[in-house]
Fold these 2 entries.
Entry 1:
Amino acid sequence: MMKIHSFNVAPNLPDNLKPLAELSQNMWFTWNWDAITMLVSMDEDLWHRSHRNPKWVLGAIPPARLEELSKDPAFTGQLNGIKQKFDSYISRETWYDKNHDKNEKDFMVAYFSMEFGIGEGLPMYSGGLGMLSGDHLKSSSDLGLPLVGVGLYYQKGYIQQVLNREGWQMERYPENDWANMPVVRAKDKNGQPLNVPVPLGNETILAGVWQVPVGRTSLYLLDTNLPENAPHHRLITEQLYGGDREVRIKQEIVLGLGGVKALEALGLKPTVYHINEGHAAFLLFERIRKVMKEKNLSFHEAREAVWASSVFTTHTPVIAGNEHFDPELVRRFMEPYTRELGISWEEFIAIGKEEQKSATFCMTVVALRLAAYLNGVAKLHGDVSREMWRKVFPQIPFSEMPITSVTNGVHTSSWISHEHHSLYLKYLKKPDSGCCPEIPDVCDWNKIYTIPDEEMWNTHQIRKGKMINLVRQRMRRQLARLGADSTVLDETEDLLKPEVLTIGFARRFATYKRATLLFRDLDRLDALINNPQQPIQLVFAGKAHQADTAGKELVKTIARLMQDKRFKNKLVFIEDYNMNVARYIVQGVDVWLNNPIRPLEASGTSGMKASINGVLNLSVLDGWWPEAYSPEVGWAIGGSEHYNDEAERDNVESEAICNLLGKEVAPLYYSKDQHGIPRGWVEKMKNSVSRITPQFSTHRMVREYFDRLYTPAHRYGKKLLSDGFAAELAKWRYRVGENWSRVRITDDSPRHHHETCTGQKMHFKARVMLGNLRPEEVQVQVCVGQLHSKGELENDTKVILNPTGRDGEAYIYEGDMTMARSGRQDFAFRVIPNHADLPHPFMPPYIKWEE
């Protein structure tokens, strides 16, 4: 076999074009329209062929064209202006500069995710999780938040989708050309390529580290495709969500253990670790191991500090959708590692089991047990998550489950069309934007109604025309690939009409998203689409996972309906959905359709992207939509009804969509004045933009993470790592555990059954047995509310009782509550642990109710 040697060739840029090298290397360009316009002007064909990758364009553009550009004063002037804009962006004062505690100079967040959607030229994403991760990094950069991302460096990224003549999804796996992508090899202190060791069972493999600059921040990617690794280990990072269960656990070990080691090797010292979905949960064990070594602590002592400084975001509202592994597979790759943790294999595996009898090791359960700050990604999803994971927190009332919610958002500058961007800045820009010059912060959204209806409508029509052009071009290429003749190709010019109400549906083709719900009654759909006064047309796009046969059947159903003469040229399915296609569709359709099975959509962000661009949402009340919906901004499909079976649910909600389209949506759209402007529609557009855009942005989301989760995690973590606090807390928790079986509480109130009046005080008294615990180590409460049918108190008020003396071995606790409500009141006494250094008291979930 021949021996291969490699070297890289860099583009030879003229001196006055040198800034292109830096601009092409930083993903900042992906949300800066001026930069994109300049890059497109260099060679539009190369720009599209590169999948919007400027580094590839610079490597492929002919030297003669570079020479020509270097002599073009308009181009060099534009380049210098953009470079100045970039330099100003990097150096200016930020929101974080103005708002953080100046004494917390070491604050830093490490954000771990399996996928990141930053730009099409960096194909490391498959769906909403990746889009969220990419937008999180971008807003962190805009706001100046000290945050770094950590992911994997995939040789093949995610699948490319192609449809055969029958409409069946086929997959391609093109290899990423990393030499021409905006990544650089991270170096060690000696200037050599940085590799970190990752324990994998009885072996140790190496992971290379790559850096992707994203504005002010960076994303670090781990790569096992190194010559030093055995061939089967080189394939670990070959493909996003590819391979069997063994490959998946290896990927997650590399991401979790290797990611922590990589940050340490880079000299970065995060004070908060944020785990975005359970894939990276192994990092918690590596953090514990690291703290044990550095602070000379036991596993249980180090665990306290790691727990207090870790944030975990769950995204999946279905138990089966969370990452589960066979315990024997986990043992094969992790048992040797547990020896460094100083715990038994049984202790290790128990951390990932929902219950002692559970058959699988769940990564989500690991994160729920080892991270103190837990959140879902919408208010409804927070409720669903608390219900899902009750077994991890037994005996804790639903309302007190330590899983909160931070509703997702989108990075507005990445998803807004440049036409809408210009329109909003023209009419809505605040006089003094201060440290927040990006949309949405730069705009006064209350001024949306100063935009003339004609301008709002015409801006939308421009984007609609561009989307239709994209659809026609892609369908022409799609048909040409399948061997269509020129007459068929020419018919693509008749696809979609700009004056027709256009409904968009584009997302992962997971079955719960019900892509074909609208097609349950084809005769009804025919009547809607071909209504001569109020016609409708449909644009669909999306990929099914390569192993999801049911999802592929949904793709096939819609693709084949394109050939039905009733829907020809009025229904399109665009193959190979990606960020660019998504951008055109959310900017160009009139209505964004979303009809998942409630409550299986954790959040959903595509509708947020659509609303930025004046597109109205027609959605099931799931994910983020219950927080945003009102009749003034869009339409709701159904409510929170319960159905007898799936068929009834689908029939009812499919009919609801058709009713809304035929009786409300289309009539409003086609109700135009003598100038051709649908005034009522435009008013709804303005309502939607002004109410949704500022609230459902990642700027708001990242600030919320900073205030509610990152800052307390940073402070608790710092405290527990100093002056022996972690050891003291671990000893206290051990004492609580040893004594908890001896804790008892009984009601000793003097007026159990006496009636009282509103405004009067009710006196509560309890006798509490504490074993060897001291009174200050617990909190005694009485919960007053109404008993729910499920056996829990609703709307309860918690009254803290104070120790007032002893009666033999029992402590006496007493307290008063002024009664504000009339009617029956139910109450229950309980004891919970109490410690000043706890983010929350429910891990382990010690709680003792009166029996």
Entry 2:
Amino acid sequence: MQTLGQDRSLKRSRKSRERKQESATPGGGQLLAQLPEVLIPAINAWKEIARKRPGPRHKALSHIKALRVELMAPLALRVVLDALSGAREFGKIALEIGGVIEDELAFQAFRRSCPGHWKGALDRSSDFTGYREKRKHIMFAMTKWGFDREPWSLEERASVGTVLLELIHENCGILEITLVRQGKKTVNHVRATEETLEWLEHSNLRAAQLSPMYLPFLEGPLDWIGPMSGGYHSTNVFASSVVKTSDRGYIRELESADMGGVYRAMNLLQRTKWKINPVIFEVYSHLWESGYTIAGLPVSEPEPVPAKPADIETNPEALKAWKIAARRVHDANYRHCSDRLRCSRLHWVCERYQDEIFWFCHQLDWRGRAYPVSYYLQPQGPDLVKALLLFGEGKPVGDELGRSWHAIHGANCWGLDKKPFEERIAWVTDNEAMLRKIAEDPLAYRKWEEADKPWQFLAWCCDWVDVLDDPEHISCLVVHQDATQSGIQIYSLLLRDEVGAEATNCVPTEVPSDLYGIVADRLSVLLVTDKSAGVLAASKWLDFGIDRSLCKRPVMTRVYNATKHSAAKYVQDWVEERCKVTGLKPPAVDGTNTYWYLAERLWDAMAEAIAATGVAQDWLGAAAGKFVACQLPVNWVTPMGLPVTHSYSRWSSRQVKTAIGDKFRKVSVRAPSNELDHRRMVSALAPNYIHSLDAAAMMLTVNKAEEAGITSLTCNHDSFATLAADSQALAEATRRAYVELFSQDLLGDFRDQLQRQLPEGIELPPLPAYGSLDVGLVQQSLYFFS
């Protein structure tokens, strides 16, 4: 792992140098972060001198004064660092620096004068990395929308660039200027000093040595027995704690914490054996190597750019059409590049492990959520990655309950997860002929592509047919059970809220509740009311059509303190996708879109459907505000004994953004101040507290599953999975865990923990009123996790 990671890191650095992007290497990035602190005072000092003394260089003063020095310094340094990959002419580097400063001033002017068009251009450029790519798209937008700017002369660019390049040479100590004979003339060249090159080489090698490529284990991970004892066998590869953190004080706190239940859950997850699903790997390999773009696979090779038309020199329309087509191909290839790389690396790992039994090391984030420590292949991955994994040990499906859970999982993967269990099982029975055709030859009969989770559906389909043909078939399939919007489930159980509990299947129901559908229905009622009151936008949205998919992302994120602005963005995304499918046009009133109106009414519908959630979030925000006023972090211990610290400090350094979104961090002075960040402290407490509770519920579920004899288990926050034969036992363990956990007054205990940390005389607000929900009803709910 260490060698692979080192090779990968050095290869990236080599490619960056070949592309003349030294600033993208670890060493170059470190210089780009640190050197602005040296260059900024030098630029300011030069400006003071230039104001008082006339001179040929000082004609650059007006342009240099126009841009904030905190932004100018890293922009100029990036150009210089990228030039260090080889010796280059002083004049050319100076012109490039001047051009970058000119661009930045133009971008800022475009943003001020055309904010709407600017935002559209910025959204488009955000799909790309690298200055040149982003610049191309911004410039295109400026031309398209007729933004006029007076370009600088070559003399102006050279003047600005020369000043900044000389200041870098005089103050930063990373380059030297030498005279080079070119034919009959002598030219100044800029190159890195020998010391700089040696430092960069050492820095990049050091970074490579600290960047192992984490892979699955070929023998079981060590059990966690303490915060620094467990997981990897060698600290040369992975020297970290059970909780991913760099806070040594927090690690010392963990050493004295009672975390037996935490370690027990982590160790069961780590002891679970895994193997590659040979059928899925074979299908994946064939489709990937053959260049098919189905079931979410990206194209394996870049799309060729269309050939230039024969009359391109004389036909302006043909030239314009070709440029548009070529630009579309270039953009698509750029976007798909990372997807191709990810698929290629996934295939490489699977090929390496296809005949092995392996394990995954697990680590917690600071709220207690568990994550496998592995690149590319791990059980919390997307659909294809999950389908490529089987448990390393299996069992026959067994009795009727095992067969039912197996069938339910297949129907869920197809997209029937909101139907009653009987309908899901009946769908599987009714479609046996289709399932057999898929399992017999998934490459020839690709009906499985239509599933919501096509790869997991294909994996299930093949295993299901094996079960049909042989009741004693050893099934290793990973069978999932998912929560119904776990954040709102937790809020409902905390506050004993009957409305939220019923909407999220915390209580027994004849059919599974659909929270997104409930919100969509409520939204439609509000729109009908507005239509009756003469609101034209309401009428247009009703004609456009409202469905549950509109509500999914806003409801999912609302529970984690999302805003109306994010809801409006999700509304816009939903509209654009629906327009692509239906050919409709977005509703507009007086030529303007009505996304914000719909987002506000959707917000109102959510407030009615999940009222208790909003009340609890408001209380948590108010509690955080008390701590910020006292400049104190918020500390609590989860029900499983894990200490959690919620603290967001303001930092003394700044993050400078250029107009096109490139970021520069001056990490040499980046240190926490003594002041807490009020906005983040208040907005983040609610989601962090809820995440700590879903983590505790996961751990308790895992421990109860172990008591029930389950040895193959995986969890992804609010989704648990085991073998079909053990699925009923897991379902019962999940419900027992949640009832045991939430029968306690967790919110009251949380308030008591917080109150003890505040100075005398500072009182937290009273807790929200509780409802009358009987938490024990969770054990009778079929659809709580399904």
